[in-house]
TrEMBL record:
Pfam families: Acetyltransf_1. Residues 3-152 form the N-acetyltransferase domain. The keyword Protease does not apply. This is N-acetyltransferase YsnE. The gene is ysnE. Coiled coil: none annotated. One of its GO terms (molecular function) is acyltransferase activity, transferring groups other than amino-acyl groups.
Length: 156
């Protein structure tokens, strides 16, 4: 699988993000759906990654710089055809590696509290994320769960 920085111009990626947004609004009230649309994901503080197997889009994930030391994971999504194939794990490992290379110290995220989001929360827990309070611009919300983890610095 190839994971690359994506400029969000391809139709496959846009369709996957539209599916992501539709699911977010279907499972959470509008004021609790914090997924970003394509235009918002093109912001300069966001790096957007897409994962491909040949010409088939497998998934996507973005990292958003909050401060020079802190990033947020955004828009994690696996295509329907690639679910339960390890794509999310590979995307998450890639994002954590990039964050470490760029010198970030903390990675945080917001995800839903409903059962629909349980697989995502399980994945984040597996990678050492722990539950925390709201960060950045977020407020306490019964439909949201906030998670964070420190990045391990390695000597080279």
């Amino acid at each position: 699988m190839e994971i690359k920085i994506d400029d969000l111009s391809g139709g496959e990626v846009i369709r996957l993000l539209e599916e992501h947004l539709a699911d977010m609004y279907k499972t959470s009230p509008a004021e609790s759906a914090h997924a970003l649309d394509v235009d918002a994901l093109k912001s300069p503080e966001i790096t957007f990654f897409s994962a491909w197997l040949g010409n088939e889009l497998q998934g996507c994930l973005a990292i958003k710089q909050l401060t020079p030391e802190h990033i947020e994971l955004k828009s994690m999504r696996t295509s329907r055809a690639a679910r339960q194939s390890g794509v999310a794990t590979q995307l998450l490992m890639h994002a954590l590696d990039i964050a470490t290379e760029r010198g970030y110290q903390t990675v945080s995220l917001e995800t839903g509290s409903h059962d629909f989001f349980r697989p995502a929360r399980n994945l984040y827990e597996k990678f050492g994320f722990r539950y925390c309070g709201p960060f950045a611009h977020y407020q306490d919300d019964p439909h949201s769960r906030f998670m964070t983890r420190d990045l391990i610095k390695t000597c080279k």
